[in-house]
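Hi support team,

I'm opening this ticket because the web form for multi-chain structure prediction keeps timing out on my end. I have pasted the exact lines I submitted so you can reproduce it. The total is 446 residues across two entries, so I didn't expect it to be a heavy job. Is there a limit I'm missing, or should I split the entries? Thanks in advance, R.K.
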Amino acid sequence: MKIVREALAGTMESSDLMVRIAPTEEGLEVSIHSEVMKQFGDQILQVVHATLGAMDVHQGFIIIEDKGALDCVIRARLQSAILRAAEPTEINWEKLL
Amino acid sequence: MQTQSPIVFRCTEVSSNPQRLTAIRKLLADSHLEMDGDITTFVEARAGNRVVGCAGLAGNVIKCVAVTPQLRGENLSAQLLTEVENLALSRGHFHLFLYTRPCNRDRFEHNGFWPIVQSGNDTILMENIPSGIQRYCHTLQAYRVPGKRIGSIVMNANPFTLGHRHLVEQAAKSCDWLHLFVVREDASFFPFSARLKMVNMGVSDLANVTVHQGSEYIISRATFPTYFLKETCKVQQAWSETDLLIFRNYIAPALGITHRFIGSEPFCDVTHQYNQTMYRVLAGTIEVIEIPRIKATDKAISASEVRRLLKTNQFSRIREIVPDTTFACLESDYARKSQKNQEYHYENC
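Hello R.K., no limit was hit. The queue was backed up. Here is the completed structure from your submission:
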């Protein structure tokens, strides 16, 4: 999916996360800031990149402010933000599961 | 135990809800804050019929964030920020700035804001994009030119006059290279595109000048809000130090700037004060050189005078104080506009 506009999803409540997405001229940049970076940084990174990959996002600026969210929450918030930021297309729900 | 009312958020437009502002003012006063004149919207957090928290939005700038003392430590400011961020995005502002006291820095850093500069013990300016200012400076570095004396000017050029031309000429003459920034904020009589075009045309014959489009980091609503309030509102506080700290700490190093040139300011108090602050903030890092204004028929030339003359269609007098390039813009636009209606509204040149 192509990121064409700026979008937000989530909150800064504990156990949640805030996702900010903006289009870029080229390239994909992911910035993750987390309260539990030391303990779960690798896992968060893995979930984020897997979600981006599943939705074919290869371009954009993704800013994540994590407050210790579970993997399923990270995936859900990131998916919402991407859908809001992308050109409306037929959604492939199977890929979002 | 006392039962607490649930917290609900509501949006208050300053212009259409004056009766709601009393409670907000009181909450701000409890936090030793005053309501800034450029805030258009407040997000209020309410418990029952009490206002327990608020955050103000002025364009892409969040300020006047306050929480009632009884509810501090419950992360209410994070909720306020989320609300205000969504509101700002719905109005087209993604990249946001936040003014707060340095003692709140940690709290906002945990809520997705990154510090830019701190001005004394009073204010710190933050932004919601990690290393936003560094990214901007990285793009500036492409325009770096080697040399011993690298000058800079920041101007609004509303519109570009013979006074501006004189300043640029003098500065360019005394420097190896000159970086000229045109204020980007569209809050002036002439829109940014028109001002940029007039500056580009007005200095095109000077070989050692780069004209830069300004940004939100250089005389913008975020870095220097009072500059854009001077014609419409009472100025409550000059924030100019923040703007100059950003210039000193980030922009000047990115371009290797050694000098900053300013025109003397006999008319406008806000600009005069900005210039005075400049000497203090840039001292020891960047040399400030003030160039006296040139005069036409005994009166110092100013852009505000051109705007005044424009309103009364005094084109022959305008011709005496603007370069031919600017005059051509003004005249062609006037001719086009006057066919449509009598009043002069400037759009583009």
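A quick check on our side: The first strand of chain B starts at residue 7 and ends at 13. Let us know if the file doesn't open in your viewer.
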